[in-house]
Amino acid sequence: MNFLRNPKLTSLTYNATKQLRLMSSQLGDLGSGAGKGGGGGGSIREAGGAFGKSEAAKEEEYFYRKQREQLTKLKDDLKDEISFHEEQIKRHQDAINRHKQRVTDIDKKE
């Protein structure tokens, strides 16, 4: 959760994801074989055809699910951090009220 407090790391993660998306749109049809934009990604993908496209689709699905998991975890971590800060606010507000009460009590004694 400490990485959430570092805006540089969050920014780097966002930029890397954005860059990966831009690069994937320039590849052409994934799994269409070597030299056709699909590139080398193993013998099945290099051969192209239905198996290559199927393998590319599975790979894309894997990374989509992985990204969804990461976003869910990030969201949960942010919710935890929000709860933490709300609790801190409550504690500080209680402390302020206690100090004000002490000042009022001191004023009454004078």
Question: What characteristics describe this protein?
Answer:
single chain, 110 residues, mainly alpha
Descriptive report:
It is a single chain. The chain is an all-alpha fold. The chain is 77% helix and 0% strand. The protein contains 3 helices and no strands.
What is the N-to-C order of secondary-structure elements (H for helix, E for strand)? HHH
Q: Report the uncertain regions.
A: none
Distance between the first and last residues' Cα: 49 Å
Q: How many strand segments? A: 0
- Please indicate the percent range of residues in DSSP E strands (runs of 2 or more): under 5%
Helix and strand composition category: mainly alpha
Give the overall pLDDT as a whole number: 77
Q: How much helical structure, as a percent, in the residues?
A: over 70%
Strand count, sense and barrel status of the largest sheet are: none
Total helical segments: 3
The whole-angstrom Rg is: 27 Å
The shape, in one word, is: rod-shaped
Question: How do the strands and helices of this protein lay out in sequence?
Answer:
Elements (H helix, E strand, L loop, with lengths): L6 H19 L17 H5 L1 H61 L1
Give me a quick take on this structure:
The protein is mostly helical and 110 residues long.
